[in-house]
Amino acid sequence: MRLAAATGFSFVGLRVIAVTPNERVYDLSPGSPLLAATQQALKETALYVLDTEFLQVNADTTREAWLPALEAAGALGAKTFTIAAGDDNIAPLTDTIGAMVDDARDFGVTPALEPISYRSVHSIPQAAAIARDSGGKVVADTLHMARFGATPEELTDVTDVLGVLQLCDSPLQRPADLDGLVTESRSLRLAPGEGEQNLLTFVNALDSNVPLSVETPNDGEVASRGDAGWINHLYNTTQALLEKIEEAV
């Protein structure tokens, strides 16, 4: 967080619940020392937490699964909590997300559904329909959008429920299988402007009030540049991309 603030970013997204069994767990539960330290860092840097993550939601997911995450998100002042769909049964899934939305209001947080190229909900219109029916929002990610063939027009059509657009770049060539898609998503993303996507068309499709974030995990780049170097590089490439938009106006 301090590196992000020093580089020039204005907000952060934080993971408050582990996604995979092997990843490091950060205890941001209310009362934990790490939460207190994080809240102090937010005060000192003037950063704020826009988004927290991450839970895969099925039709039978219960409150016990999401309440601790929502409590942590609320303690951080987050606006949204990102979820993904793990169930093809859309009607009961929507009902479950609606129940989560109801609980989240108590913490000042809104669940936001991210359509993911290798999950059951993998299009912008599909995610937006569920968000509207459940009272939630949508998180759009340019990597997944490229992999499931989203269009800029689809983004424009969901402005009413779009919580954030996550930027990253990638080659045009789609990974050949599920393992490739997962690996690319979690550890091989490219800095904005350094791949083959036309990110400008997606950014230009947005309402100016929609926040832009940078979602670019890349293990090799972090190993090569270090945390500070990679964060600085991401800031610079994203600024360069946005300057192209300003020049075109």
Automatic annotation (TrEMBL):
Pfam families tied to this protein: AP_endonuc_2
Protein name: Xylose isomerase-like TIM barrel domain-containing protein
Gene3D superfamilies: Divalent-metal-dependent TIM barrel enzymes
InterPro entries: Xyl_isomerase-like_sf (IPR036237), Xyl_isomerase-like_TIM-brl (IPR013022)
Lineage top rank: taxon: Bacteria
Organism: Corynebacterium glutamicum (strain ATCC 13032 / DSM 20300 / JCM 1318 / BCRC 11384 / CCUG 27702 / LMG 3730 / NBRC 12168 / NCIMB 10025 / NRRL B-2784 / 534)
Domain Xylose isomerase-like TIM barrel: 2-228
